[in-house]
Amino acid sequence: MDLVQIAAGKTLSSSAVFLLMTVLLLAAARRVSTAIILFALQSAIITAQVMATAYTEKAAEAWIVAAMVFALKVVAIPSALLWLVEQLKVSRAMEPSLSSAKAVFITALMIFLSYAAVQPYARESRVPEDALAAAVALILTGAFLMVSQRKALMQIVGLLVLENGIFLAALTTTFGMPLIIEIGIFFDLLMGILIMGIFAFRIRDTFDHLDVTKLRQLRG
Q: Which pTM does this prediction carry?
């Protein structure tokens, strides 16, 4: 590993603590709008990481990826989700299945497990341990939000956080994927959010709520 990659790795590691803070704050959040803003902040940190990698690696494609991450995940998607919250006119309370204390405890445990899981690989491959652990923690937290939250909008946020973790894992281990792959991932993500937003509207119009757990009553 040359000095350029070492510098990029240190940049990723130094910002990992801020990503872990957003993970804990997401677990403690009790309003949908707060969770959306935290996702935007998380994406802004990842944008800074991509820009740092682009600078150290002298990669023009990485600058394009950074611009795409900022435009989509920091501006477009959070704005669209906040617009959905306003248009759906439902309670902004998240109504999770777990209390804040339990959710934060489980998230902290997942962070600890993330460090334990990536430590052998990080030492062997000489990749930034903190950044890789943060990526795994984002993936686990996203999955946890999708399972523990009752509202469709929060499950969308969980999916976005999970995708941030996958993106950060790729950035940490390979210092960025080819541009064509990144574009394909962003397109799939955008289409997925569009479809889930349409489903959220249909659920609200049909049942006058966004609590997906109540859909179990439809089982015959």
A: 0.79
